[in-house]
Amino acid sequence: MQFQISNFPMSSDAAATLDLETREAIDIDRTKGDFTFPERNKFDAGTGLSSKTIDYISDVKSDPAWVREFRHKALQVFLDKPLPTHWATKDLEAIDFDKIRYYLSDGEKPKRSWADVPADVLETFERLGIPQQERAFLAGVEAQFDSEAAYSNVKEELTKQGVIFCNSTEGLKNHEEIFRPWFGKVIPTSDNKFSALNSAVFSGGSFIYIPKGVKLKQPLQAYFRINSENFGQFERTLIIADEGSELMYMEGCTAPKFETATLHSAVVELVALKGAKIQYVTVQNWSSNVFNLVTKRGLAMEDAEVRWIDCNIGSRLTMKYPGVVMKGRRARGEVISIALANTGQHQDTGAKMIHAADETTSNIVSKSISVGKGRATYRGQVHIPKHLKGCKNNTECDALLINSNSRTDTYPAITVKGNQHATQHEASVSQVSEEMLFYMQQRGLNPGQAMSLAVNGFINDLVREFPMEYSVELKRLIDLEMEGSVG
Amino acid sequence: MSLHIHDLHATLEDGTEILKGVTLDIPKGEIHAIMGPNGSGKSTLSKVIAGHESYLVTGGTVTLDGEEIFAMSVDERSRAGIFLAFQYPSEVPGVSNANFIRAALQARLPKGQDIDAVAYYKTLYQKMDILEIDRKFTARAVNEGFSGGEKKRNEILQLMMLEPKYAILDETDSGLDIDALKIVAHGVNAMRSPERGFLLITHYQRLLDYIKPDHVHVMAEGRIVRSGGPELAHELEKHGYDFLKEAAFA
Lengths: 487, 250
Hints:
By secondary structure, chain A is α/β, with parallel strands linked by helices. Chain A has helices at residues 20-30, 51-60, 65-80, 119-127, 130-137, 156-160, 168-174, 176-182, 193-201, 434-442, 447-463, 468-483; strands at 43-44, 104-105, 140-145, 148-154, 164-167, 206-210, 220-225, 232-233, 236-241, 246-254, 262-264, 267-272, 277-286, 290-300, 305-314, 317-320, 323-326, 332-341, 346-355, 361-370, 375-384, 392-401, 407-416, 422-431. In chain A, β3 (140-145) and β4 (148-154) form a beta hairpin. Chain A is globular, with a radius of gyration of 22 Å. By secondary structure, chain B is α/β, with parallel strands linked by helices. Chain B has helices at residues 42-50, 74-80, 97-106, 117-130, 148-162, 178-191, 206-210, 231-249, and strands at residues 2-12, 17-27, 31-35, 55-64, 67-68, 82-85, 92-96, 141-142, 166-170, 197-202, 215-220, 223-228. In chain B, the strands form three sheets. Chain B has a six-stranded mixed β-sheet, with helices on both faces. In chain B, strands 2-1-4-5 form a four-stranded antiparallel β-sheet. Chain B has a two-stranded antiparallel ribbon with strand order 7-8. The A-B interface holds A 11, 17, 21, 25, 433-436, 438-447, 449-450, 453-454, 456-461 and B 50-53, 73-79, 83-84, 86, 89-95, 99-101, 103-104, 107-108, 111, 141, 158, 162.
């Protein structure tokens, strides 16, 4: 299925009717993540990628031998693999791998107290509201600045219960016995070119272990901040929820707006052992020249549940298809996804649901909004093999087009073999009607406010799935994107 | 102080002239009713005043307490005090009634000032009680899955919450049974005030049994062809529009 709707008439001078106050508010607010401090890097791997780069990173990080070897092998895979062409975009060719800096850090260890974090880094995270959020509702926070975590802390009572929350470097060194057996197992190095790249140069990201039966009442949060130009951020996250445990993990990301393209290529692996539940919430708000090429996958064992709640705003190109491999009986996988593509942006997002055991259930609900010349693509893959019994999938993808030149495409690939399964797929494309906008404007809302309200209404049922603190932020981000959208 | 319409001409985008010189003065404190057969331009008049972009104003003026409104956008006119109760209100999927009305009120406040949530709900519930609207209504999406009667009541609720200077009710009585009509009329009557003018657009005299107009105008073929007191509505009811047309042109 592929939809493209044109000829949606919109008042061409509607933007001009935005009052000055509104426009000023937009201009000021848009710069929230758009600031940068002078680089403070003691360690800089330089531009370009070779085995020397790998050794530099391994040296700086004092990697164990097995990690160094893992990186070198991954580099070879990366170099051998062509750029993915099936993803239907030529834009990837604009990435110049020789001009990227693959590792930048000030050589400081992550601090346990904000008071110890260098002043400008602290100010960065304070402007983004991270310490305040931690005090308000988080069980633990990791704040990454370019390649390394500047701050990492978890509430003491959780540490006493055996919860581990640290960055991946600390994880692989201090907790090798838990880390190593799962590392690279959910997403092998060779999964795709960018997972190989991450495997070669990864730094930062979270390592989390939740012991058997421990259920976290408050979320853990990571914040990924890019500060430097021509930089690639390659965090690596591994979360292991032991039997019967539960956690919610939230990640946020921003970068300032540089003249040149920035690359963010993360790998996130989740392991939910028998009866465990993992909810992974992302609200990304990248600036409009970030290539965001992320591989995310969860493994759900018997009676376990993995939910990806994903919101993609900003970036130049995002390619992200969170997946769940349902490996144990009655395992459940879910992807709730919101994508907003504005002019100059392509959100190529979706979900992968791999059913690998009987009576497994998956649910995909995706809503995308295309604004201006923005393009949103839903790309889904649901796989239910013949030998299984009683599997269920539900896929819903709805697209909203704001302007006549907005674009959306839907590529749902649902492979179901055998006749003992239930699948259901619905897709819709809609637009905000002129009559609806007239109605809202007659009640006193300016065109931007009216559009914003309509868009928030469109995704309202999904926004409820986000924790309250994030849904407020989400609404604010959408308001900002929509205010300038009309006309 | 009035909503003053002077020699108003308007066409469709294709050039078809719908309003052919309408002049009407609605002072604050008065209720004016416009009656007329289908296609006479009644609804067009309301949309042109509100600023619908399907119509092109080709002549004349509309002033709100002396201020020209045609330079204003749709939302500016609304905030300046013009309210239109729609004949066919739009659905706004996913947006609750409470949030919608709140957003409309918020749009009227100066920057940096916020609606007081407690006071807001208190007022909202009070107005809903007058219109006999169930409390669950606040959480339902605007007009989505509403019956015709519910939609019209919602329009009046918004009118009551936004407290405009001038309210235009476009065929608010159509599709209402007699009980719903009484409730809607009750709401409108509660809003009657020396500080507010009303323009009721209706096809039938029935509405005017419950909302007593000060003046009745008859519109035909894009013009006001006759004006009078409330008795004019009864005359129309008795003799129909044909009679009137003959009388007007005799």
